[in-house]
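Entry 14. Ran structure prediction on the chain below.
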Amino acid sequence: MNKSLVIPKFSWGFSLEWLLLSAIAISILLRILNLGSREFWYDEVLSLLLSTGQKTAYNTPGDTPVVLANYTSLLSLPVESGVGEIILTLKQLIHGLLGGEPHPPIFFLSQHLWLRLFGNSEIAMRSLNTLFSIAAIFSAYGLGKTFLGHRGGLFLAALLGINPFFLFHSLNLRMYAPLVLWVTLSSWALLHLIDQRDTQIPDSPRSQWLWNTILIVSIPAGLLTFYLYGYWVIVLAVLVLYLDRQHWLQHGCRLGFGVLLAMPWILWGTIKQLRNSDLNRFGAGAKSVPAWLNHLQDVTRTLGTDLLVGDWVTSLEPINVTIAGCLVILLLLTCCISLWRQGEQKKLGVALILGILPLFLALVVDIATKKFTLGFGWGRTMIIILPGCLLLLALWVERGVSSQLRTPIATGLLLVYLTISIGDFSLRPRSVFHSVAELILQERNQPTLIAMNSQAWGHVMRLAYYIPSKSPVMLLAQKPGELATSLEKVLKDEAGKYHRVIWLDSSSPLWSRLKTEAEIETQKQKVKQVLSTQFQLNSTQSLSGTMFLDKFTASLYKNASFK
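Output, structure tokens:
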């Protein structure tokens, strides 16, 4: 046979590596393409308000209309004429955090700096978190490589990169993407320091200093990004006892020093935040089922959300999320049994410590305090379990299955994640307040009153962000039970002032919901009666996004006698 005609055969490992590299590249591309593809949701606009340092200037709308543009100015940096006023803005930012915000300051301070550099557009504000998430992907590669070798590192990075839950939070103006970075960095650094004691060629002094610094700095960074990172510090301590008990004191000093760096804020700021925070919101489970079943559902749904459905959780029925969680649990159990039979008990223990132990700690605390933090926030409070659980999957594919099955299983897992992620951003648009802005822009120079049955500041500030500030728009935001009365008084005194009234009826006015459907319908009829006396209904449209907070009915009324 002519050797020149021989077609080279590539090994499965080579093909799999290129598949994993392609998945990592796609995950980065998805982040870049979707930076501005969605509106800010409720919590994101609150993050922006806090980051500008102007939360303390926010006042809840009263029973008379206010100029909407007055709220728009709060979503940008205040006018500053010198260093002194810049420092004053930073003080106001901290003061805003201490006045009831339950999260530590690092995320908001970093976003404040980013805001100064690049402005407050969706792309600009989300880009910092996107950079953090990309750094977390590369950090996951380092963690996986230390634990499983080069291909294992690529697989962990690929899984994390296209995981639907992490992809969503990579493009979310909240603190969860940086949190994953501190989790992966700290676990990578600790495993590296432990592994160095078993190698024949130890790190150079400079390298040891670098890894110690990464570990020590990532701990206060995590604690000052999200308080539940405290669970992760305990996890790292358990990992030390599991892998390197003989040198527990040295590792303990590293962990302890990292915690000490965060103590000034914890002793001053955290205590003040706790005094002003509403912790009772974590105490409400479903009344119709026993508490133990609520806790079990929370664990199952957390796993289902974090490891499978991602942000689809905001659109799915709870039973579907529970089913997804059961499938994830079944997969994880399969991984554990397979790895145990393959004699990988030690590495299995590491993966379980990093992935399952934080969830177990949170569950124990919830049971002891009679709270339900696991069920709060659609799984995001436990995003710290994500790298460890994905590490378990990577370990299973690398060590728990035959070489013939490795590539098909890896491909299947990646395709499932990729399909869910792409579907999330292509099939679930969020353009609720853009639609309201389009109504305004139809006659942008005409005086308009927006009457909204919600005083929730996330709703108010989203209106302020998306509606052009130069348009003459007034806002009357009232509780559902009070809107008709206030609107009647306003129109009695100022009906000739407005060419249009846009009635925004929120399906979820949050803290001011009416109790029964009958009450809701009664108040709607009252608002209709008030408007119909002087205005004619022009159009009605339903607005919806990816969660119940996004559901509105927008009714446009026009004043035929307006001149």
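Confidence is low (pLDDT under 50) at residues 1-13. Will compare against last week's run tomorrow.
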